[in-house]
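> example.struct
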């Protein structure tokens, strides 16, 4: 296992090796993201790019003396995805201002329409009354 850890130290500064290493470990990244999110993750999901960012950061920041690269990478992937979900939950609980504005406009339009109908009804009523008197 330490062979992999040494390999990571050698690829951090080489863009070509870096890219090849990420391609080689795509399944690990997807599996880690799926495990953390508790659902199937594909490359089309946001979690994929977030996990990929965590894995890339793990390659750049890995310290051989502190333990296994795989454990470190999984930890950073986990942190990134958890942070992402926290941010998503923050936005889901907020009411969007546009919705409030749209509701106010619709209510205002509804009131305007109601006033127009009442006004035209009054005009017709007065017209009928004036016709009857003539």
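> example.seq
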């Amino acid at each position: 296992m330490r062979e992999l850890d040494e390999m990571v130290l050698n690829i951090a500064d080489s863009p070509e090796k870096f890219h090849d290493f990420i391609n080689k470990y795509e399944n690990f990244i997807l599996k880690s993201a799926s495990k953390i999110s508790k659902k199937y993750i594909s490359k089309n999901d946001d979690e994929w790019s977030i996990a990929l960012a965590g894995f890339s950061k793990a390659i750049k920041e890995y310290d051989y003396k502190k333990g296994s690269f795989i454990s470190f990478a999984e930890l950073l992937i986990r942190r990134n995805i958890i942070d992402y979900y926290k941010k998503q939950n923050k936005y889901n609980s907020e009411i969007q201002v546009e919705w409030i504005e749209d509701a106010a406009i619709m209510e205002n339009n509804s009131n305007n329409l109601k006033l127009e109908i009442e006004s035209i009804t009054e005009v017709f009523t007065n017209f009928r009354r004036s016709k009857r008197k003539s």
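> remarks
The longest helix spans residues 97-133.
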